[in-house]
Amino acid sequence: MNGPGRLIVTSPPSRGRYGEFGGSFVPETVVPALQELEAAAVEALGDPLFLAEFYGLEAGYAGRPTPLHHARRLSERVGRPVWLKREDLLHTGAHKLNNALGQLLLAKRMGKHRIVAETGAGQHGLATATACALLGMECVVYMGREDMRRQAVNVAKMELLGARVEPVGDPAATLKDATSEAIRYWVTNVRDTHYVIGSVVGPHPYPWLVRTLQSVIGSEARAQMLELAGRLPEVVIASVGGGSNAMGIFAAFLPDAEVQLLGVEAGGRGPQPGAHGASLGLGTPGVLHGSRSYILQDPDGQVLPTHSISAGLDYPGVGPEHANLKATGRASYVALDDRQALEAFHLLTRLEGIIPALESSHAMAAALRLPADGGPILVCLSGRGDKDLETVLGRESA
Amino acid sequence: MSPEGDPLRAALPSSRGEPRVCPYLMAGFPEPEATADLLLAAEAGGGAVIELGIPHSDPLADGPTIQAAGRLALSRGMTSRIALAQVAQARSRGLRVPVVCMTYLNPVAQFGLEEFCQAAAAAGVDGVLVPDLPLEEMDGLGRAASRAGLALCTMVAPTTPDERLALAAARASGFVYCVSRTGVTGAGEPTEGAGLLERVRALSDRPLVLGFGVRRRSQVVSLAGLADGVAVGSRIVEAAGGEAPAAAVRDVVAELCGR
Predict the structure, then answer these.
(1) Rounded Cα–Cα distance for residues A116 and A197 (Å)
(2) Residues of B with CB below 8 A from A25's CB?
(3) Rg, chain B, Cα only
(4) Nearest CB to B106 within list A27, A30, A288
(5) CB contact (8 A) between residue B159 and residue A23
């Protein structure tokens, strides 16, 4: 395949709605900025010069297209062909850079010189800090204290790249708290600051914008399957925290009705409240961080704590388009727990020589549980596992 | 509307003089059962309208002081239902000034928009303000509030263009809350308040309440002729978090009122 995959550019959904989900529920101070962002994004995504600059960076800087790997030993184990979309090989080690590069080019075009982002696993923060270094922009990253502890290497990298990493909340604070704080910073500095949200969550137009920028994954993977496997996959699997790698790869296959789409949420330590991150599986409709989707909440509408061994899936909400795909039945979602993700982590490492991120390990774990003797499985290997070694080794020596 | 049918206008008369003080309390802070006492204390100090915050786990428009108060209230078991019961108790003990509930969309949506408005009105609440419900999405809450006889308050910010200001003014059956600067509640001077108030005044005859960053008597005085009411939040919440909360709240409100 020559050059990066093309973005799948759709019109923004009216009022940001995906069925009964989505919308834009934020304080008035940032409403005009969101309207301005939507207009600027529509204009940019229709401009060949903007797209050429984006594809140029994706190819020459980020390393697109990423390979599609036929995992032969893993296929033997599963009993059917398994193909891995290698987003772990993208610069900075995860799919997050697609979104960060696209949004930063957009921010520059809008004349915003400062960037604020939230991060959970640190991969979105790292991608944003990297793109800010490349494009010469000021970068502030909010990160929960618990995540700063378990992703210390990514914190160090962001600081080396010139970003200011701001610790959020109490010692247990994770992605939810970091996102709230990044939004507050944006509310305060909205005139000169662009908020780069890291997933297909948040107020409209973010779920649409991030999905569009991540659709390079899906359009590449679909073309590569046709080229290398000679057919479309029977199942596409991706992990779902907020759900950006999943939405990016699903986007290309939505019109292929025969292709099953399977999202994998964090089952954590079990289905009891506070022990998992399975918003679609165990949550109820509600509003968090500016959009209506499935969220983990108590009957009074207070958002519950979450747990996952994977910092990137440790989030009580999910993108509204996923909520709608669940409602319409076009995609299905399962939750796999910490232990199952760890097993898959080790198996992929030993069978294919690829150390996956714990987020991606959840998607791998689902592939291992599919019945043998089916058609090809395409797994989005969204990131590499270097950042998780301490978590994995620490847990196993404990 | 008659004054009886428009309690927020009656409490916040449009005048060239000094704006009335609208104290903000976080329901359930420092204790769930202390809320009725604090409502009465805020009235005793001279509060003209009381904004009662119902705590939410993810308050996007609030700064550190109000966030922390809400977190503590939730950890002590505060809920929307207890907050409304505390208003009803304060009314039965003689509270007369209007009360406006200020909370976020999700707690209200989970309660049910219709059910929340009915329960709030029955408890003696006069109005409702939901900062994360944008003007374009207000139809449902607006209808529910109107059926319950609650005034719907709207919020505008310095970044709001004039055409949206007009929409906010048209949507409001209560007051228009004018955010004094880009930012969250608490620290920071209300630097953009005067300009915003002038722009809204040209478009609306609803009462105008300025908030965010107001904590001193001198700021209240400086808004004479511009705002009809001034919301003071973090300063009052700090007082409620100290020794003898009711006396402290009454004294701070009295000081802000120049009593």
Answers:
(1) 8
(2) 105, 132-134, 137
(3) 16
(4) A288
(5) no
ipTM of the prediction: 0.94
Asked whether the predicted pLDDT for residue A257 surpasses 70, the reply is yes
pTM across the whole model: 0.97
Q: How many CB atoms lie within 10 A of CB A46?
A: 10
Mean pLDDT, to the nearest integer, of A19-46?
97
Q: Is the peptide bond before B55 cis (omega within 30 degrees of 0)?
A: no
Contact status, residue A121 vs residue A387, Cβ threshold 8 Å: yes
DSSP structural state of residue A303: B
Distance CA B259, CA B251 (A): 9
User: Chain A partners of B106 at a C-beta cutoff of 8 Å?
Assistant: 286-288, 295, 297, 301, 303
Residue B157 per-residue DSSP state:
-
pLDDT of A398 reads 59
Do B157 and A27 make contact, defined as CB atoms within 8 angstroms? yes
Interface check B133 vs A, CB under 8 A: yes
Residues of B in contact with A288 (CB under 8 A): 58, 106
Sort A254 into a burial class: Cβ within 10 Å, 0-12 / 13-18 / 19+.
Answer: middle
Contacts of residue B207, Cβ cutoff 8 Å, sequence gap at least 6: B8, B9, B12, B14, B174, B175, B176, B228, B229
- State the CB neighbour count (10 A cutoff) for residue A2: 5
CA angle A302, A285, A291 (to 5 degrees): 85
Going by pLDDT thresholds of 50, 70 and 90, the confidence category of residue A172 is confident
Residue of chain A whose Cα is closest to the Cα of B79:
A300
Written as one letter, the residue type at A361 is S
Q: Name A383's bridge partners.
A: A94
Tell me which residues of chain B have a pLDDT lower than 50. 1-3
Question: Do the Cβ atoms of B183 and A188 come within 8 Å?
Answer: yes
B83 close contact with A: CB closer than 8 A: no
Whether B228 is catalytic is no
| Cβ contact B58–A286 (<8 Å) | no
Nearest residue to A166 (alpha-carbon basis) of A211, A215, A116, A212: A116
Q: How far apart are CA B17 and CA A184, in angstroms?
A: 34
Tell me the pLDDT tens digit for each residue of B55-96. Answer: 999 999 999 999 999 999 999 999 999 999 999 999 999 999
| Cβ neighbour number for residue B160 with a 10 Å cutoff | 23
Active-site residue flag, A382: yes
Q: How far apart are CA B84 and CA B198, in angstroms?
A: 35
CB A262 within 8 A of CB A333: yes
A12 beta partners: none
Residue A193: count other Cβ atoms within 10 Å of its Cβ: 21
Active site residue: B51, B126, B192, B228, which one? B51
Alpha-carbon distance A22 to A29, whole Å?
19
Residues of B in contact with A301 (CB under 8 A): 56, 106-111
pLDDT of residue A151: 84
Give dist(CA A251, CA A255) in Å, integer.
Answer: 8
| Of residues B165, B185, B107, the one with CA closest to residue B141 | B107
The reply to whether B198 belongs to the active site is: no
**Which residues does chain B have within 8 Å of residue A185's beta carbon, measured at their own beta carbons?**
none
